[in-house]
Amino acid sequence: MKAAYREHYRDALTVREVAQPVAHPDEILVRVHATTVNRTDCAVMTGKPFIMRFFTGLMKPRSPIPGTDFAGEVVAVGDKVSLFKKGQRVFGFNDQGLGSQAEYVAVSEQQAVAEIPQNVSYPQAAASLEAAHYAYNFLSKVKHTAGAQVLVNGATGGIGSAMVQFLRHAGVRVTATANTKNLALVKQLGAERVINFEIEDFTRIEDRFEFVFDAVGKSTFCKCRHLLKPKGVYISSEPGPWLQNPLLALFTPLLPGKTVKFPLPLDIKRSIKFISELLASGAFKPVIDRTYALDQIAEAYTYVASGAKTGNVVIEI
Ligand SMILES: NC(=O)c1ccc[n+]([C@@H]2O[C@H](COP(=O)([O-])OP(=O)(O)OC[C@H]3O[C@@H](n4cnc5c(N)ncnc54)[C@H](OP(=O)(O)O)[C@@H]3O)[C@@H](O)[C@H]2O)c1
Fold first, then answer.
1. Tell me: the pLDDT tens digits for 27-74?
2. Radius of gyration (Cα) for the chain, nearest Å?
3. Ligand 1 pocket: which of 237, 243, 304 to mutate (most atoms <8 Å of CB)?
4. 39-46 vs 130-139: helix axis angle to the nearest 10?
5. For ligand 1, is residue 189 a contact (CB within 6 Å)?
6. Cα–Cα distance, 100 to 83 (Å, whole number)
7. Residue 69 host element (H or E)
8. Which pLDDT score, from 0 to 100, does residue 211 have?
C-alpha cells in the first residue's frame, strides 16, 4: 500500500510503498478514505515538544508512518472482534499516533473508534476528530450553563472553530477573536460578537466573562484575568511560558476567586461519542480549509505547521 513515511524525527516526509497491515484477532482493518494533518500530527511527526517522545518513541518514532486520525471503511475484522463488521464506515483518533496516513490502517476495536453518522462524508468525519476532541475537552472541564458568557480566543483554528459550535449548541453566548478574512465565518459558526484580532486587542474590551477559552494558546491568564467575572475560569490549549498554565491549574484552585484549568485530553472515546451526536444532529459541521492528496502530504504538513490554517486540513486517499 502507499503510505506517508519517515524513519527518524529529523527525516523529510516521503510517500512510498510499504507492506499492508494485517488485522490481529482484536483488530479491524480499515481502508482509509480520509485523514487530516493537524497540530498533534506535527508534534508526533517531529518529536517536538520533546515530551511527545515519551509516548511516540524516545530516539526514533515507533511507527515510521505518521497519522493520528482516520475515516474509512472496515474491510476485514479479526476473529475476536465483536463491535464492528465488514463494510461499516468508521472514524477514530489516537493522539499518540495510529500510522493512519496510509491507504490502510489496523486498529484494535478497543481504541477510540466509532461508526460515522449517516450523511457525514469521510473528509468531514476525519475533520471532526483531533481539534473537536480538544475543544470538547475544554467544555467538559467546566460547568457552563445556557446564557453564560464565554470568550474564545482563536476561533478560526481547528479547536476554536469546533468550540464555538459546541458552545452555541449549549446556548452559551460567545464572543470570539478572528482574523479579517474569517469574521463572517466565525459569526456563522455561532459567535454573537467577533473581534478582529488584527486591528483590536481583545483584552481591552469592557465585557466580562464566566470563561475565557484561549483555543489558540497565544495569550496568558495574566493578560486575561481582568476579563473574568469573580469566579471565572481561564483555560488555554498551550502550557504557556514556563509551563505556567499546568502550574497555575494546581495552585489557583487553592485560592478564592478566578482559576486556571489545564485541559489534559484523556478520554477520547467520550469526546467521539459527544462529537458523533452533534454531527448526527447537524449541530456541528467541521470547518475544512484545504484538501490534499496523499502524494502532497509534505506540503500539507508545511501549511499546518505555519499556524495559518482555518479549521482543518484533510488528506483524501
Ligand atoms: N494541549 C494539547 O494537547 C494540544 C493539542 C493540539 C493542539 N494544541 C495547540 O493548540 C493550539 C491551537 O491548535 P489549532 O489546531 O486549533 O490551531 P490552528 O488551527 O493551527 O490555528 C490557526 C488559526 O489561529 C489563528 N491565530 C493565530 N494567532 C492568533 C492570535 N494571536 N489570536 C487569535 N487567533 C490567532 C490563525 O490566524 P492567522 O492565520 O491570521 O494568524 C489561524 O486561523 C496550537 O497552539 C496547538 O499547538 C494543543
1. 999 999 999 999 999 999 999 999 999 999 999 999 999 999 999 999
2. 20
3. 237
4. 110
5. no
6. 20
7. strand 69-77
8. 98
- Cell matching residue 94: 489516537
- Fold adopted by 2-130+267-316: Quinone Oxidoreductase; Chain A, domain 1 (3.90.180)
**What order of strands is seen across the sheet that includes strand 259-261?**
193-196, 173-178, 149-153, 209-214, 228-236, 259-261
Percentage with pLDDT > 90 across the chain: 98
| First CA to last CA distance, the chain | 11
Euclidean distance between CA atoms 73 and 95, whole angstroms: 21
- For domain 142-261, the CATH superfamily is NAD(P)-binding Rossmann-like Domain (3.40.50.720)
Distance CA 301, CA 40 (A): 11
Task: Assess whether the C-beta atom of 159 lies below 6 angstroms from ligand 1.
Answer: yes
pLDDT digits (tens, 9 = 90+) for 219-250: 999 999 999 999 999 999 999 999 999 999 99
**With a 6 A CB cut-off, is 158 part of the ligand 1 pocket?**
yes
